[in-house]
Amino acid sequence: MSTALAPARTGSDERLTGFAGEPLDQRRYRRMRFIRRFEETLLQLFEEGALNGTTHACIGQEADAVAVIEHLAEGDHIFSNHRCHGHYLAHSGDALGLLAEIMGKEAGVCRGMGGSQHICAPGFKSNGVQGGIVPNAAGIALANQLSGNDAVSVVFIGDGTLGEGVVYETLNMAALWKLPLLVVCEDNRWAQSTPIAANLAGDMAARFAAFGVPVREVDSTDVEELSAIAGEEVGLVRAGAGPRVLLIHTYRLCHHSKSDDERPEQEIADRWLVEPLLVHGRRLDDADRRRIDDEVETALSEVVATARALP
Predict the structure, then answer these.
(1) Most buried among 1, 188, 212, 291, using CB within 10 Å?
(2) How far apart are CA 207 and CA 220, in angstroms?
């Protein structure tokens, strides 16, 4: 079952996840647009001092979350990292629960104790420790395998996580045991403020291939292209093909966290020309796109107002 076509989960808002019967291209745009505006709003709230702790946005990477997660079913598990908001919203649509959590409110997903990076919800777990969530994903994949069901684990990591030894220990076990695990590596070209050329030796895909784990590599911000590929990879893992890697070369348009950004301005400007909403938005009629934008703004305004009023 694809969440792009399934009913909204408990706590979600159809203005966020898509109305029943809404064309798939509009639903995808709606989800990406909400993730984008949610995170832009988070950055504003951070500047106000309204958030607890820090926050890491995925602006520019929204297509990855939507494309992969729309192929997951009830019983599957998603594991994420410090840049988890887009993954969580694409999975659950629970914008109020997430915002309340980041604001330290009792009504938050984890009663305000997990903050921006550490989310624990049905079918979703995130951890701010680089690579720290990868063994958990493999553990749940092993549990599913032993249970004899066809559920899969999907773990999102960044290119910076490839410097963590626990990733390779886990890949070794996952390959040996043929675990139903899909690793989605979002290579956004920069590990915090360090370009990959300065901190990553060799070929990125070859690191996974060394364990005999097949790698599907794509350089794209197009949600349709990414969805087609992700669907094939999820299907193979679900069918018992063992662990696989989807390596997505993307780009983070915002700073790493708060205001730490030393990247060349022209590089960032060039990437705004191929960002996911612009690429996919061209497929929609202007009227539909404006309507969705307006509905997203209304929904988000209500979420923010409700979250601010919570104890």
Answers:
(1) 188
(2) 21
